[in-house]
Design brief:
InterPro entries: Ribosomal_bS16, Ribosomal_bS16_CS, Ribosomal_bS16_dom_sf. By secondary structure, the protein is of the alpha+beta class. Helices cover 38% and strands 18% of the residues.
Length: 168
């Protein structure tokens, strides 16, 4: 007979309450069980001591006779220090494939080349001195300032059509 340490659900609708039981693995989840070894109330706070209550001696006995815990019960047993639970994740499975790694390397190389080209262009512009416009070059006249330009454009002649408006 295959024995499982698992949860058996009780409680009302949307108010779950579980018994941690040793049961024949062929029986229904909420059906007949061999022995109740603890309780689990998921509605209580995670740090509440009454959330998971477990009879450690009976849990050790059932594990000793070959009972297999479900995933959730294995977590409870690990937290209680009764049985260490092996990690189920495979961290290497999350790594990208070979082609994705190649694409990432190519992209990084292109970005590095572009950055080097940008730095080289910045250095080239920094090395060439920019012409200063503080003093005019020899033989050329200084550009007119804003006041002089305004005076030059102002004349005593009225604008076209201005005479018509003044007479009217």
């Amino acid at each position: 007979m295959a024995i499982a340490l698992r949860l058996s659900r009780g409680g009302a609708k949307k108010r779950p309450y579980y018994r941690i039981v040793a049961a024949d693995s062929r029986k229904p989840r909420d059906g007949k069980y061999l022995e109740q070894i603890g309780t689990y109330n998921p509605l209580l706070a995670k740090d509440d001591e009454k959330r998971v209550q477990l009879n450690e001696d009976r849990a050790r006995y059932w594990l000793g006779v070959g009972a297999q815990p479900s995933d959730r019960v294995a977590r409870f047993l690990d937290a209680a220090g009764i049985r260490e639970r092996a990690a189920r994740n495979n961290p290497s499975k999350a790594e990208p494939g070979e082609k994705a790694k190649e694409r990432a390397e190519e992209k990084a190389a292109k970005a590095a080349e572009a950055e080097e080209a940008k730095k080289a262009a910045e250095e080239a512009t920094a090395e060439a001195p920019a012409p200063t416009t503080d003093e005019p070059a020899e033989g050329s006249e200084a550009p007119a300032t804003g006041d002089e330009a305004a005076v030059e454009s102002t004349t005593d002649e009225p604008a076209e059509g201005g005479e018509d408006k003044a007479e009217g």
